[in-house]
Every structure is written in structure tokens, then in C-alpha cells.
Write a structure and sequence with these properties.
7-stranded antiparallel β-sheet; 2 helices; DNA-binding protein; alpha+beta; DNA binding; 60s Ribosomal Protein L30, Chain: A
Length: 172
């Protein structure tokens, strides 16, 4: 598909979604836009994905959310949790395509708390996946679709695993 046709299709889809309120980056390009279901983020080369998601959560006072995304990463640091040592063993991958990015937004001790997983593929189509500890956008962009919820959800460190666990309100 020719790039201009893709751009026109995206603009038509966004127009059909309803009015958008956009936040602009220093260079004039938008990082996120408000949608009827939440937000759409389009991040560019060098952007720190976790930092910007946390910033959006604070700025827009998002009570909780679910997100999905795709795009190119300059660096993706995955962590595999060592249950005996109670910590993540990190491994970095460079210049990978994020074929899938998914996670949730909640709060812990007054700050946004993200839980993100993903699957990345390298130029040889080898796939890697798991918990994402850090993620930096590479050449091109990364699109993240955020669906917000009205209920403010919390995370709490639970033992014996020393893991942040999403806390659900009890239904009466």
C-alpha cells in the first residue's frame, strides 16, 4: 500500500472515532490524542515508552487502563523473573520489531504502576518475549492504543514472591 493511502485511511479512521484532543511535542508532532475509549499514542525515535506512558497517566489522571501497541524499538529490555532470587534477570535486544505490546496501568504509592509484556522479532525473524523492563522507540514509530477505565486500580507488593500484584475491588 502506498504511504499516502495509509495516511488517508488512518485520518479517516481517526475522524470516524470522534473529536480528538491532542498533546504536542516540542517539534510540533503529537505524542497522544484523546479518543472516545481513551488515548492513542504515536511515539517516535528515541522516546522512552514507559516514561511517556507514566507521564500521560499522571497528566491526564488516568485511573486505570489496558493498552496494546506495535512498532519498532531501538532497545527492548526484557526481564525473566527469578522466583528464588525474587528479581528480574534482564536481557537487552536491539533494533527489533515489537509485534505485540500489551499491558495495564494502575497505581502504587501515589504513582503510576505499569505492567507490560511484549513479543519482539529481530531481522532474522527470531522472536523474544516476556516482561518489558524498558523500551526505547527506534527508527519509525510506535503506536499504543490505551483503553481507560473509571475505577482507580492499585498494585501492592505481595509476599512471598515480592511481586507487584493488581488489586481488584470486591464486588458486593
Amino acid at each position: 500500500m502506498k504511504p499516502y493511502i495509509y495516511t488517508i485511511i488512518c485520518l479517516l479512521l481517526l475522524a470516524a472515532a470522534g473529536p480528538l484532543q491532542a498533546q504536542t511535542k516540542d517539534n510540533g508532532s503529537c505524542r497522544y490524542a484523546k479518543t472516545p475509549q481513551g488515548y492513542l499514542m504515536v511515539l517516535r525515535e528515541g522516546d522512552n515508552v514507559l516514561e511517556l506512558l507514566e507521564g500521560l497517566t499522571r497528566e491526564q489522571k488516568i485511573p486505570s487502563a489496558y493498552f496494546t501497541g506495535i512498532g519498532f524499538a531501538q532497545q527492548a529490555v526484557f526481564g525473566f523473573y527469578d522466583f528464588e532470587k525474587k528479581k528480574f534477570n534482564p536481557k537487552s535486544f536491539y533494533k527489533v520489531e515489537m509485534g505485540s505490546l500489551t499491558g495495564s496501568i494502575a497505581w502504587k504509592d501515589g504513582s503510576p504502576s505499569l505492567h507490560m509484556h511484549g513479543v519482539a522479532a529481530d531481522k532474522d525473524f527470531n522472536a523474544f518475549g516476556g516482561h518489558i523492563l524498558s523500551l526505547t522507540v527506534g527508527t519509525g514509530s510506535m503506536e499504543i492504543y490505551i483503553t481507560t477505565y473509571n475505577e482507580k486500580l492499585q498494585r501492592k507488593t505481595e509476599q512471598p514472591l515480592n511481586a507487584n500484584v493488581l488489586q481488584l475491588p470486591c464486588i458486593q
